[in-house]
Amino acid sequence: MLKPLFTTLLISALSLLSTSAMADEQKTYRWRLAETWPKDFPVFGDTVKSMAQRVKEMSDGRLIITIDSKNKHKAPLGIFDMVRAGQYQMGHSASYYWKGKDLNTMFFTTRPFGMTATEQYAWFYYGGGMELMQQVYQPYGLLSFPGGNTGNQMGGWFRKEIKSIDDLKGLKMRIPGFAGEVISKLGASPVNIPAGELYTALERNTIDALEWVGPSLDLRMGFQKVAPFYYTGWHEPATELQFLINEKAFNSLPEDLQQILMVAMRASAYDMYAQSMHENALNLEKIATQYPDIQIRTFPASIMLELQRANDQLIEQFKQQDPLTRKIIESQERYQGIARPWTQISDQVYLEIGQ
Amino acid sequence: MLKPLFTTLLISALSLLSTSAMADEQKTYRWRLAETWPKDFPVFGDTVKSMAQRVKEMSDGRLIITIDSKNKHKAPLGIFDMVRAGQYQMGHSASYYWKGKDLNTMFFTTRPFGMTATEQYAWFYYGGGMELMQQVYQPYGLLSFPGGNTGNQMGGWFRKEIKSIDDLKGLKMRIPGFAGEVISKLGASPVNIPAGELYTALERNTIDALEWVGPSLDLRMGFQKVAPFYYTGWHEPATELQFLINEKAFNSLPEDLQQILMVAMRASAYDMYAQSMHENALNLEKIATQYPDIQIRTFPASIMLELQRANDQLIEQFKQQDPLTRKIIESQERYQGIARPWTQISDQVYLEIGQ
User: Fold this and answer.
1) A117 vs A233: CA distance, rounded Å
2) Do A58 and B349 touch (CB under 8 A)?
3) Predicted-complex ipTM score
4) In this structure, which CATH number among 3.40.1390.10, 3.40.190.10, 3.30.1490.20, 2.60.40.10 belongs to the domain A153-235+295-321?
């Protein structure tokens, strides 16, 4: 009698043990992600959805990420704080939105006259950029990763043509952040207006110009109906969005799920750059066929030169503020200094063939 | 007595069942990958290693991919056949190497005067390129995926300066494939020489010129010591390598491992484009500092025009060969036709600022 009973108990115990081990391995982690964007926002929102879908499929359902959009959490510029507090394990936003909290966050999105998207990805992943970004975010208990690139952003929609620096004097333009400071040095008045009011502001002459993203996202806003001059870009050559992760939440994941999350973010971020190219191409064609009166222009060289000078002055001021700021800027300047000559003799020369 | 015995048996049976279910889920798949490249080949080889490492980590060791390099399998151009036969589950190579087996494979790497890397990624993933590539590979029981981009390749190393079309007449140049056919229409003699003999052939005037990749991989070959003119590119604007997978092997994987494999390949392929930018930048700087006598040149416009004409003629001939060939070429032409205007008003105009 003793033996079978003992066996029964042993098997029961082993069985329980095995069930429990399986349960641990099969544990489902449920994460919440807050994004800055409205629900179903094209391109940006697609990037978040594809990342979450890939994580779900690769983890066989062991890591499920639910996405809350702006309409749900009501705090599009509160992502940093909400992820820091652990209210959300994860966010999708843009690093330069946090410059009021920490100036050094501003340099991990893009900057006027900075690197192209490919140069910048090379800097992030092979040129020391990731390490500097983590140095900036580490004190906040946050991890930051590239979150998708828009490519070169257009300089904006203008109601009147800009022929000389005089045309910029007093010009009221929606152009936030660093670029707004640069253009204000040339006499323009940068203003900030919520996205939902931009079209009306431009239509009613409350503002004379605005910049948004590029053909990929601009046409749905309707700007082409009220501002006939569409200027090429100088101020955001490679806007990289951001995945933010609460470090404690990340550390609580098993190693395989950490890797799954990191590779999914990386692939989906790169994908956004290709998708932006696609959407820009389709929508630029739409401008040509459906809005043939739109004039695509580039600022005259004299204006570009002044913008560059103003930008250089601001950059010099930033360098004085903090040794880490200087370190980041110098790393980017050094990198752009070696990457740009290659871009010039490869893609640039190639694009000039036959023109 | 009956009850405990029954319970014992039941528990044993359940326990066995559970062990077997666990074993299935924990089953380790061991795959072999054959790459065209030598062992520890920079950039290309790094891409394969990073893919295999990511798969291992994300699958928690459930899918292990062992890499065999050229020195092991001795068949650098046998990847297609070996993966097709199931001798290897997977390969890393370049699609245009298989043009002798199927002309249509040639169009999924790059082609003279074709798309840039970003345009081409957009075409693959958002413009129908992947679907066309699978249509070409499906009859062979193979799956093909982008395997990493070199970026714009240099036009090659020349012992003498090329000033006019006359300088191309009779020029012996190592330039394989499609580009070789194009340049032969201008009177040059394309020759094929194994990689290991290239330096000696150039040094001893057996050939007058050669193209390889770009600064990222050229300097280790030593060409800069014997050919002072380094020409910019026209023939391979965005060389994409290839991951090849045996379809039956792929289908035998559980769905989560299939996803892990696909996302790892995708991230590592994109990474290679960024790594190529990095290595090109570093090595171009090395040319400037260590080999200042190297002259970087672009073919005169008259030569470019003739190369384009010859290319157009060849493309027209290809279109006549097979309805699928025509479909692929027309898809690429249409895509480049809408993507290029965007590239021009974004990155190209931006790169021209301040020059």
Assistant:
1) 13
2) no
3) 0.93
4) 3.40.190.10
